[in-house]
Amino acid sequence: MNLDDALESIAERMKAEGLLLRPADDEAIAIAEQRLSVRFPASYRQFLRKVGGAAVKAREIFGIHGAASDADRVMTVVDVSGYLEELESNETAAVVISDDGFGNYYMMRCPIDRDQDEVPVRFWVNATDDASKIVAPSFEVFLMTHLQP
Fold first, then answer.
1. HEC states along the chain?
2. What are the phi and psi torsion angles at 65 (to 5°)?
3. Is the pTM of this model over 0.90?
4. Mind listing the pLDDT tens digit for each residue in 94-143?
């Protein structure tokens, strides 16, 4: 299965569960990247364009659009990443893509203001300093291994 197939599968499962797809256009992606001072990896940009954000297998993957109403407010990648500024350095910024429901995050350390094709997805445990471990070599692999049936 390739990334396009995985994204199509996620979109179909979300529709079947009555969940709203909110794909992002290039302008919205650029604004989010500018707010975080990063360029998202290609596979994450593709995910944003196709699905927007996902809720699959009891896990939410943050997108850049919130819900349609304040009553259904969901966090966006920009909202959540702003909470973890302490994980940033002069060269990378933490881009939070998901959480485990217990205050621990799946994140990518994206280079600040420059392109990089892919970066590893890390799992960061909130109760420790900067103890994160790599759980996937890329966002694409993270989707394939964590969200597929």
1. CCHHHHHHHHHHHHHHCCCCCCCCCHHHHHHHHHHHCECCCHHHHHHHHHCCCEEECCEEECCCCCCCCHHHCCCCHHHHHHHCHHHCCCCEEEEEEEECCCCCEEEEEEEECCCCCCCCEEEECCCCCCCEEEEECCHHHHHHHHCCC
2. -110, 135
3. no
4. 888 988 888 888 989 887 766 677 899 989 887 665 567 899 999 999 98
- Of 75, 73, 80, nearest in space to 107 by CA: 80
Tell me the C-alpha distance between 85 and 61, whole Å: 19
78 with 62: CB under 8 angstroms? no
